[in-house]
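Researcher: I need the complex structure. Ligand is iron/sulfur cluster. Inputs:
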Amino acid sequence: MEDRKEINVSPEKGEGARKKYNRNKQKPIQTIRFWVQVGFVLLCLWIGVEFYNFVRFLETSGLEGSAYRPPGAEGFLPISSLMSMYLFVISGEIHPAHPAGFFILLAAIVVSFVVGKSFCSWLCPFGWLSELLGDIGEKLFRRKLKIPMWLDYPLRSLKYLLLLFFVYSIFFLMTEASLRTFLDSPYNIVADIKMYYFFIDISRFSLIIIVVLFFLSIPIRNLWCRYLCPYGALLGLTSLFSPLKIKRNSETCIDCTKCAKVCPSFIKVDKMSTVISDECTSCLKCIDSCPVADTLELKPIIGRSTLLKKYVVFGVVILFVLVTGIGMISGKWQNNVKIDEYLYHQQYLFGYGHPTSTNEIKKLNKRNKESDTNIPKSNEEEDK
Ligand code: SF4
Ligand code: SF4
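Model: Output:
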C-alpha cells in the first residue's frame, strides 16, 4: 500500500544526503471536518431563526411568531453556563433557567478533554468563520501573516485574563447565595433575549468593534479565537489534560516542515516530538499534510497505538451529541420558564441589569448576607 520515495533531506541531516521514505497514503480528513463545521453552522442558523420567531411572539403578544423557544440558544450564554456549572459543582444541582447552556458547555469541555481543543476547529461557528476569513487572507496575501512573537505572546494572554476575570468573579468572589440570586434573577432568565436585542439594536460602538474584528481576521488568522475568546481559553487549558496528543516520529521524519507550514496555530510541529499546546485545535491539518507514512499521528500520551483520523470525527461529534443528548433524555434540557413569565418580563426587559464589577458582586454578597431579598430588578432600581 505504501510507495517508496526518495528526497533530499534537510542540511541538518547531512548536506545533499537523500533519504527513502514510505509515502503517506491516508486520505485527508479536512473535507469531512469542513462539512461537520457547516453542519453546526446550519444548526446555529436554524436555532437563530427559531429564536427570532420566539421573540416575535413575545413582541406581538402571541399574534406572530412561535411560542417555542429553542434551548440551543443557551449555547451563546457562556457566562450564565459557567455559573450553572459552579452551582452544579457545589450543590449537584442543574439550575433550571438555562440547563441547555450548562449541557452545551459541559459537552465542549468533555470533547476538549478527550480530543483536545477540537470544539474550536470542528464545531464552533465562530471558529469556522475565523478559519474562512483566514483562508481568504491567505489567498489575498499569498502567505500566512504571523504577528511577531513579542506581540503575539502578550496578545494571547488577553483571553486568559478575560477567563481569569470570569473565573475569579464567579468561583472565588460569589457566595452560593449570590450565585443563586443571580441565576434566579429576571436578568438571567431573559439573558438570551437581551443578547438578541444587543445584536439587533447594536450600538455604533459595538458595531465598529465587530466590523474591525471581522476585517482584521482576514490578515490575522484566528484573531478572535487566538487572542480574545475566553471560551477557547478554557477549552485550551482543558485540552492540556487530554490523553491524546499528536506525536512525531523523528526517525522517519524527513524535516520537510510541511506540518508546521499548514498549522493555523503556528505550532512548530516539525520540531516537536509531542504537540503539547493550548493553541492546538486538533484540526489534523498537520497530519494530513505529512508526506511520510506513520510519522505524524494522533496517539495516547502513554503507549504506542495510533488513533485513526476517522475516529476523531466520531469522537468529537458523538461525545458532543452524547452529553447534550443526556440533557435531553433526562428531561433537563428545556428550562422551567413559562411563556406567561416571558411575556411579563418582555415589558421590563430593558430595565433588567446585573453586577458589572467585582465591587458590585461584593455588594451583592453583603446584601445576601444581611437579608434574604432578591437581586434588584434593574440597575435604576438599585440606584434609587
Ligand atoms: S498542531 Fe496540527 S492539529 Fe494542532 S492546530 Fe496545528 S495543524 Fe492543527
Ligand atoms: S512530521 Fe512534519 S516535517 Fe516531518 S515529514 Fe511530516 S510534515 Fe515533514
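Model: Summary of the prediction. Residues 4-8+19-29+242-309 form one domain.
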